[in-house]
Design brief:
This protein is elongated. The chain is an alpha+beta fold and 81 residues long. It has 2 domains: 40 residues, no CATH class; 31 residues, no CATH class. The chain has 2 helices and 4 strands. Helices cover 19% and strands 25% of the residues. The strands form 2 sheets. The protein has a two-stranded antiparallel ribbon. A two-stranded antiparallel sheet has the order 3-4. The model has no long low-confidence stretch (mean pLDDT 89).
Length: 81
């Protein structure tokens, strides 16, 4: 992981652009994936959002349903009801 800082300026609306090579390295797709942004003391942290099952928090074998992620285990439990 390259921790060398990249200097960026905010535009008039307070936006910055994440460089394409970083988005590519993290497999972040435009208009499809989300990032998390939060403050940690005096730092702004931006990280790729990891999809998790809305029921159990599992991140393996997810199915999307109406914008929510559900793992196969929970999906099977739902079908069995």
């Amino acid at each position: 992981m390259n921790k060398q800082p990249r200097l960026k300026q905010f535009d008039a609306l307070g936006r910055i652009c994440i460089p394409k090579y970083m988005r590519d390295n993290l497999n972040i797709k435009n208009k499809e994936d989300f990032v998390e942004i939060y403050q940690n003391d005096d730092e702004i942290v931006i990280k790729r959002h990891k999809k998790l099952c809305v029921f159990c928090g599992n991140d393996d074998a997810l199915t999307e349903f109406e914008g929510k992620s559900i793992c196969t285990g929970c999906l099977k439990k739902i079908k069995d009801i």
